[in-house]
Amino acid sequence: MPELPEVETTRRLLAPSFVGRTIVRVEHDAPHRYRDTHLAHGRTVEHLDRRGKYLIARLSGEPALELVVHLGMTGSFRPTHTPHTRVTFHFDDGTAAYFQDARRFGKVAVVPAGNYRSMPTLQKMGPEPLSDDFDADAFARAAAAAPAVKPWLLSQLPVAGVGNIYADEALWMAGVHPKQTRLEPDEARRLHAALRAVMTAAIESGGSTLRDYAQPSGEAGGFQFHHNAYGKDGQPCPRCGTSIEKSVVGQRGTHHCPTCQVLRQD
Ligand SMILES: [Zn+2]
């Protein structure tokens, strides 16, 4: 599932195809999934931003509107029409952008600018991990009272954009067990730094390609070659050599090193 680095990579590479162009028509086959897209017709894309795992295109004109895209499990933008193209954005210069989504968990909607009532996860999202708003002290205070840390990260409440891959990688880097509750201040600080480091490195590599994700050019990302824990069950921990274990935490497949990430009992 695309997480912050994949969505940020998509945003950077997609921006030249969207920004400054006027959307003449949005073509799709599922009105309940792709809501109010006709409201974008005749509007020009002024910016292409990202919040967590959401792409947000700011549109020209009044009332102020945004085109919001969530890639879901298998969504990506591709340079050409494919058998899994769900939404096609036609622009005034004759070009088009193609949103493909094999499993159809992705969402596309036009909403009043800044009004995310129809998308509660986006509405309640925590700070961007690479922004100054993601403050180490505030994170440590919240983490001191937190339930099991991995599901807490995945909730998007303490920080935006962290999914299964980057939660496992950041927890491994910080040496914190995925089920740890009530983090000590030093654990929380290590995790805060690890989240930033992992996100930065993954964006630099163009994200991780496991199955469906690709950059808008069609090229794969490269960060899957730098994973230390995610998907590495049975392989030696790069830090200590112990076999990485796979378990289920909060209904998600989870990878950790039993030597580097010890569950501390309160
Ligand atoms: Zn280890």
Automatic annotation (TrEMBL):
Cofactor(s) in the UniProt record: Zn(2+)
Residue ranges of domain FPG-type in the record: 228-262
Task: Please give one Gene Ontology molecular function term for this protein.
Answer: zinc ion binding
Q: Formamidopyrimidine-DNA glycosylase catalytic domain location, by residue?
A: 2-106
Residues given in the record as DNA binding sites: H84, R103
Per the UniProt entry, the Enzyme Commission number(s) are: 3.2.2.23, 4.2.99.18
Gene Ontology biological-process entries: base-excision repair
Give the protein name, as stated in the record. Formamidopyrimidine-DNA glycosylase
Please report the organism this UniProt entry assigns to the protein: Deinococcus yavapaiensis KR-236
